[in-house]
Amino acid sequence: MIRRLRDAVLRRIARVVLQRRVPADLSAGDVCSVASGGDGYGVVKVLAVESETVHVRVYKEKYGWRPERIETAALSLGSIHDPDGFGIGHLPLSRPEFGGWEPVRINREKVADEELEGYRMWQESGGGVWQ
Predict the structure, then answer these.
(1) Beta bridge partner(s), residue 31
(2) Are the C-beta atoms of 39 and 87 separated by less than 8 Å?
(3) What is the three-class DSSP state of 25?
(4) Which domain holds residue 75?
(5) Is residue 83 a part of any domain in this protein?
(6) H/E element holding 18?
(7) 47 part of a folded domain
(8) What is the pTM of this model?
(9) Pairwise CA distance, residues 85 & 83, whole Å
(10) How many CB atoms lie within 10 A of CB 24?
(11) pLDDT in tens, 87-112
């Protein structure tokens, strides 16, 4: 019982700490570099921000350093069949989960209507969120 309580408290603390890594003024169109595990760094574009959820577009390109400038027009989602990986057009993440990716804003771009297709499908289906 004490172990479960301790684990619950530690999970809650971790969520608070990770959520604080999300820029307070994060908004749709923000392009961020993110930690990509052992692969270095990746780039995401924020499609929408809700009170508990950050919706991102994950590009397939990976870097050995944290990019400081990038134009998403030069990036791609690729395909699941690409040997060097692929991106994701829409990924709904909890704020703490997104914070765990260590986002750093690079710039801000307009979100194109076609980029919101996956987000709209998620809304219509009442989809879940990666925790």
Answers:
(1) 45, 107
(2) no
(3) coil
(4) 2-125
(5) yes
(6) helix 2-19
(7) yes
(8) 0.83
(9) 6
(10) 5
(11) 999 999 999 999 999 999 999 999 99
